[in-house]
Design brief:
about 65% helix; alpha+beta; 4 strands; about 300 residues; 9 helices; FtsX_ECD; cell division
Length: about 300
Amino acid sequence: MRLNYILSDLGIGLKRNLSMTIAVVVTIWVSLSLFGSALLAHEQVNLMKGNWYDKIQISVFLCTKDSGGRGCSGAEVTQEQKNRIQQVIESNPDTAPDGVYTESKAQAFESFKKLYKDSPIVSTVTQDQMQESFRIRLKDPQRYQNLVSAVAGLPGVDTVQDLRQYLDPLFKALNWLQWGSYAGAGLLLVAALMQIANTIRLAAYARRREIGIMRLVGASNFYIQLPFLLEAVLAAIIGAVLACGTLWMIVYFMIMQRAQETFRVWQWVGATETFRATLIMVVVGLVLAVVPTFLTTRKYLKV
């Protein structure tokens, strides 16, 4: 009997506030979709960092007679200088075990010809103009600065190149985009929270006389709140399901079908990350429904 009454009251409440309920569903749908996108953007940035930072090398280019680096004196690097540079690199605690690779002029020239095989510049460059170099992998790519400081300026060193100087601006831009998505999602979640609270407030005000009668006959607070709670939870679940479906469609059509096929060199978010994001979205949607409902209906329980 009580269940029938609660379901009947729920149906009446949805009919009375149908337009507001639809607005709540749409707001939750949009806000959770953006929130889920921000979660996946966070996962994607972390995957890209892990993928690229593990491949980061420090390249130490040695002097030629045409080099103008501060460690050069207008002459080719000597064998003694090369031995000293290699000793400093290998003794540095941040250098990975077996992480030092030496590239000779001949090897550099072969790489140059492959890179610019369709360019006329190849015919103007000779092997003697190439630079010998040390390519170094680090135990922790985040600690690149220590090795750069130790090597830069040594006699025989022309330049020290670190890929982080090119990757960091990219990741900073991605981080700003990520936090911008979180900010936009947060504003929409607040809007959804306020809209749910407003909808429940209007519904409770319209039924204040019924609530007063139920209080007089001894109904418990939870029993009175339950129809309002179910109304809000139903709207939140519908909005969350639509948002999760939207997120899965974005991941499938834009990432799995296109991005992964076009940019195979990058690791992309997949089903695992999307499933984790959808679970968080559902939990957030339920919190958006439950919290404002309890806080709003408390006022009318004092009738």
